[in-house]
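Notebook p. 47: complex prediction with phosphoenolpyruvate.
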Amino acid sequence: MEIRKGIAVSPGVAIAPAVVLDSEQFRIPRRSIEPPEVEAELGRFRAAVEHAQGEVRALRARVTSDVGEKLGAIFDVQDALLTDSHLIDEVAELIQRDHYSAEYAVSQILKSYARKFLALPNRYMADRVADVYDVEKRLLRNLIGARRESLGQLSEPVIIIAHDLTPSQTASLDRSKVLAFATDIGGRTSHTTIVARAMGIPAVVGLKTITAELSGGDVVIVDGNRGLVVINPDEATIARFREAEQRFHRMEKDLGDLRDLPAVTPDGHEVLLWGNIEFPHEVEVCIARGASGIGLYRTEFLYLDRNDDPSEEDHFQAYAEAIDAAKGRPVTIRTCDLGADKFTHLSGEYDERNPFLGCRSIRFSLQHIGLFKTQLRAMLRASALGPTRIMFPLITNLKELRQAKMLLADVREDLEDEGVLFDPDLKVGIMVEVPSAAIMARHFAQECDFFSIGTNDLTQYALAVDRSNERVASLYTPGHPAVLRLIRTVVEAALESGIEVAVCGEMAGEPIYVPVLLGLGIQVFSVSSATLLEIKKVIRTVPIAQAREVCEKVFQFDSDREVDAYLTEIGRRLLPEMIA
Ligand code: PEP
Ligand code: MG
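Predicted complex, structure tokens below:
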């Protein structure tokens, strides 16, 4: 039995035999054709392209109707590749000029495209290499006619193990047969991850060598809550995880009962429990799981898979959809957090050595004022439709906040002049996710309406640990005393100035940290839809008096190890069924 730790990207636990996708790759021999066969070969190639286009478009339509337009649009990249005349001509030329078989020509040209994508400095574009591989496989499948073991025809429940899964492979997984998946590579922002979460498939990514360590048929456990994969588990481990699996399902079911109950501690201290979203259609999911508002709408996902900028109308439509779905509950729209690991077509113009310390987020917005104002106009217009709040990410100094607010004021004036409606009392807040902003929180509190602490970045910047690098993942914990002290500074500043303070980083969705955040005085917990009910359960279990005691104790420790061990122990005592 072996245990591997990866990145937990989609919650749930599953146990089943593995299907290892990479062992089913096509092998394409270098085959030549005779000159009289060229025309027929070109015909075969064109038919394969046409058929592949039909498949991609059908898939797009299915995904759009199942999980929404934004996810469906993921397939536009593949459609664009299949209609790219340059690509088609290159393949045709290899067939005509060099007399290669259509299969070999396709494989050669698509591989050269994949290499070009991978060499791009723009991480977002490099990630699109998955779409190139997908198009290659699709064309080859059509050309060869021989079918790979189709994931659509699985007869038994399985766990998929792959080097990487393309978005379309993920979207076409049969949810009743594919219990989970695990991959060698991948990160939080990949399309595959987004699709997995939207479909509710437990998943662990970033396992580096999992495909090499497993053979098809090996029994495997995927724990998407903790990012664990257990290979060939022994009987006792299977029993333990089976129990965890059942507990997870039971808990999910039981938690449903909490949906309409308030997020209040047993001794009457009430907090707000809100949802984090990337796409407007997720508002409905959050509300179905009892969210009383949206604390973070990551609007940069509007830029996914586009070769142009979203128009004001694109922005407006998305915000209007979210606000409409929230039915009177507040929606906190964050201005685009582009750069670092989330790129636009514009980012290709820059090559940054340290993108997480580069032109990211509000810095990007302030350097692209046209784009920023377009977004602000759409946000203001949408604010006329229901309670809306605007939030600026990655603020590091007061000048940035003042510039952003000044641009917002400009846009307000323009809209007033044009007679366009918006909410004149719209609240404006900042994400506190950089140590400089946390330390200077008192000053920021004088100039904004609320704070939302982004613990994902705050931890990364306070500890100098890349949040997406699996090699230093063990150093990354919001339980580090330095991170906790920064959070305390922010809360104290907010309480002193009477402004609201939320946490919207993943820390708020981790049950063990709830007591300390409650004890510190956090008023809003904004978490992903998957963890909403779990967090409500913790809040409803911990008396505020005890949370304050836990908090006091935690601040006596000088290492993250002690903090995390203590909080896990407290969590286990309070909620043994939840914190194993
Ligand atoms: C954070 O940094 O904690 C946060 C919520 O923002 P994001 O994860 O989008 O960077
Ligand atoms: Mg952040």
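Notes: The mean pLDDT is 89. The pocket of phosphoenolpyruvate (ligand 1) is lined by residues 296, 298, 337, 433, 454-457, 504-505 (CB under 6 Å).
Next step: compare against the earlier run before touching the bench.
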